[in-house]
Amino acid sequence: MRVGVRLWGALRSFRTMSGSSAHNPLIAVCQVTSTANKEENLSTCSALIREASARNAAMVFLPEAFDYIGGSTEETLSLAESLEGALIQQYAALARECRLWLSLGGFHEKGPNWEKDRRISNSHLLLDDTGCIRSIYRKAHLFDVELQSGVSLKESSFTIPGVELVPPVCTPVGKVGLAICYDLRFPEMSLALSREGAEILTYPSAFIVTTGLAHWEVLLRARAIENQCYVVAAAQTGSHNQRRTSYGHAMVVDPWGAVVAQCREGPGLCYAEIDLPCLHRVRREMPVQNHRRADLYGTVGKKSQG
Length: 306
Known about the structure:
Helix content is 31%, strand content 26%. It is of the alpha/beta class. The chain has a single domain (24-285), classed as Carbon-nitrogen hydrolase (Nitrilase/N-carbamoyl-D-aminoacid amidohydrolase). Keywords: Hydrolase.
């Protein structure tokens, strides 16, 4: 019993180790219900961004498919744009107006051979407070599933898989590593980003309800704990059309694995301070990265020769 009390006390001390500080940057994490109406989606997201700006947030995170969710493959493709199109220009202007950074978590970007193959990339864009694109990550792990519940999705039928991870980006809230939704299930990716200096891992998502109920929070907390990073997960929520419903529960997890912010039902925002001194203390006191045995991984059952 005493051991249990001591462990709980240690947990509480890590969660509250540096407390709230006016010097910690504030982030805002969006939860929305995108439809095929791009103008309405833009209006909803713009209102949330301006609300976050009024709260002095330094950075706002939007979910996967912030631009739209189509009711069919044909509709999805018909609404796609290029990076030079009107929608991204409007978000760039919004970043300049509100003087904050934007994580645009999953944009339907026309592929390089669009006129020939009609394929898109699922692209995560990072915009700075001048509206410039600072990084683009194109989703590497595509969501192709056939669940017993009857859910069947094949993202690869119209989406080009990304071919590289992008380096973490220095932002006013810390070094941000970019991923998208299904990437959450591949810890190798988060480990690669944290090795490159990521302090915040971001997983903008449109999780379906079945997998959201089972796996959403536990996976987000696992990625935070094993990498000793903040994890930021903007999310889609509710019914988009007759075929698609998302789980929601946008949240922020701290480097100790505690959920420090979470959206309620429906569209909205949650806020969290990013306490980098806290993160660095966690890493100093439990130096997991230094303890990794890269010399052993991938060699299970193989004895050294000679």
